[in-house]
Design goal:
This protein is α+β, with helices and mostly antiparallel strands. It has one domain: Peptide deformylase (Peptide Deformylase). The chain contains 3 helices and 8 strands. The strands form 2 sheets. It has a 5-stranded antiparallel sheet, with helices on both faces. 30% of the residues are buried. It binds nickel (II) ion (NI).
């Protein structure tokens, strides 16, 4: 296992369309998943997409810490190949988002409140989950990376974009009535 370099915003790898994965069990992909899990643990984020580590394949990993989960339970790391994300309803919500490729910053980003994720796991088996809240946000953020989309490209209100330190120190909050549509 190895800790991989994470591309930062401005590198074209983050703007490219990633390729579908035909054989998720290929040993180089098994190694890539292991390296991504280690890289994410080292960086301290909740999700990481393959293009962020300079690999243009449709793969991301994510987990939801108990502190961010609706039910308060830690979610184990999920490996997601070839995802298809479908909004469930048209409700949009604003929430803070950060990205390991945009270190130190966070922003209010509109996302669908509920989504269905259909994908393959690390064994190649298909699975489907319905997600809401923070998990739905993470899924949409990571799936966007596979299409070359970074969260600033989704933003509507640049007043709520800043450095983590300043936002925490000032207590800046996204207004309840922020327009997410
Ligand atoms: Ni990101």
């Amino acid at each position: 296992m190895a800790i991989l370099k994470i591309a930062r915003m401005g590198h074209p790898v983050l703007l490219a369309q990633a390729m579908p994965v035909a054989d998720v069990a290929a040993c180089e992909l098994v190694r890539l998943v292991g390296d991504m899990v280690e890289t994410l643990a080292d960086a301290g984020g909740v999700g990481l997409a393959a293009p962020q580590v300079f690999r243009g394949v449709r793969l991301f990993i994510y987990h939801v810490p108990g502190s961010r989960a609706d039910d308060g339970a830690d979610m184990a790391m999920r490996v997601v190949f070839n995802p298809v994300v479908t909004p469930l309803g048209d409700e949009m919500v604003m929430g803070w988002e950060g990205c390991l490729s945009i270190p130190g910053l966070r922003a209010a980003v509109p996302r669908f409140a509920r989504v269905r994720l259909a994908a393959q796991d690390e064994t190649g088996a298909g699975f489907e989950v319905e997600a809401s809240g923070f998990e739905a946000r993470v899924i949409q953020h990571e799936a966007d990376h596979l299409d070359g989309v970074m969260y600033p490209m989704r933003m509507r209100d640049f007043r709520y974009f800043g450095f983590n330190e300043e936002i925490s120190r000032s207590g800046l909050e996204i207004p309840e009535d922020a327009d997410a549509d």
